[in-house]
Amino acid sequence: MLEKLSKWKSSLSSQEVREDIDLANIPKHIAIIMDGNGRWAKNRGLPRIAGHREGMKVINKVVRKANEFGVEVLTLYAFSTENWKRPKAEVEYLMKLPERFLKKELPNLMEENVKVRLMGSVEELPDHTKSAVTEAVKKTENNTGLILNFALNYGSRSELMNAMKQIAKEIEMGTLSSKEVSETLLEQYMMTAELRDPDLLIRTSGEIRLSNFMLWQVAYSEFWFTDVLWPDFNESHLSEAIAVYQKRARRYGGV
Ligand code: FPP
Predict the structure, then answer these.
(1) Annotation marks residue 149 as catalytic
(2) For residue 183, how far is its CA from the centre of ligand 1 (angstroms)?
(3) Which GO terms describe its cellular component (predicted)?
(4) What does pTM read for this prediction?
(5) pLDDT digits (tens, 9 = 90+) for 155-200
(6) Which of 9, 149, 207, 231 is the right S-S partner for 75, CB 3.0 to 4.6 Å?
(7) What is the full DSSP assignment across 163-176?
(8) How far apart are CA 124 and CA 93, in angstroms?
(9) Does ligand 1 lie within 6 Å of residue 42's CB atom?
(10) Rounded Cα distance, 250 and 153, in Å
(11) Gap between the Cα atoms of 172 and 176, Å rounded
């Protein structure tokens, strides 16, 4: 009964939030740190991987809703360069999720005109993961709707360092002059080269940190943190985040 009541309550507030949203001011790029899968599972006496499986199911809902709102890019932090430190079985499970997700969802993503894109050191992923994600990128390359950008084996510091190394190499070879080094140039060497910066960054599970995620790109993003654990995240939370974003005044350092 209590559960029913709270479901009813959350759908009511979702309706309220919807009415609050200005469709002319939707954040064009939303980046999400999907956190709390392990705690979600622990709270239920389940193994951590059960939380990841449940977390995977949320992606579909969020993609659909974001697409419906007209969001242009949705970046999801699915696996960080630090996540390799987790127990082997958990890492193996996480590496199976993109395949599982795409096997089930690729036809829907095609139907919804979603373009899959990757950000991270994809070449270091196990072959089965790599082939699933690269196939999804290939199959959806001509789609023109929402860009679903999976951050897989991604770390912001290593992204920045690689960009700097490439620039240094070009200078060394004489194909670039140090005078040409600028913010715009650096951005061309980043894994987000053809994407705009996130307008809104969401992190679930109550943690208030960036965890090596898009450090350069979120310089002027609005942040929205929620205690909701990722497997419990749904369309109404996304709407809530967008409604809060729309109430903020973005000044980019101006007045
Ligand atoms: C963080 O929660 C979550 C992850 C490291 C993995 C996120 C992955 C998914 C949601 C599924 C990915 C699916 C695809 C299709 C790529 P945590 O394990 O750190 O949670 P905790 O902080 O509660 O332990």
Answers:
(1) no
(2) 32
(3) cytosol
(4) 0.92
(5) 999 999 999 999 999 999 999 999 999 999 999 999 999 999 999 9
(6) 149
(7) HHHHHHHHHHHTSS
(8) 16
(9) no
(10) 31
(11) 8
Domain spans, the chain? 23-155+197-246
Structure tokens at 89: 């079985």
The pLDDT tens digits for 119-149 are 999 999 999 999 999 999 999 999 999 999 9
Name the token pair of 12: 């009511």
Residue type, 47: P
Q: Confirm if 148 and 76 have CB atoms less than 8 A apart.
A: yes
The residue with tokens 């910066």 is: 197
- Determine which helix (DSSP H) or strand (DSSP E) holds 94, and give its type and residue range: helix 88-111
Binding residues: 35-40, 48, 52, 80-82, 84, 86, 203, 209-211, 222
Record: fold of 23-155+197-246: Undecaprenyl pyrophosphate synthetase (3.40.1180)
For the chain, where are the E strands, in sequence order? Answer: 29-33, 73-80, 115-119, 147-154, 200-203, 222-225
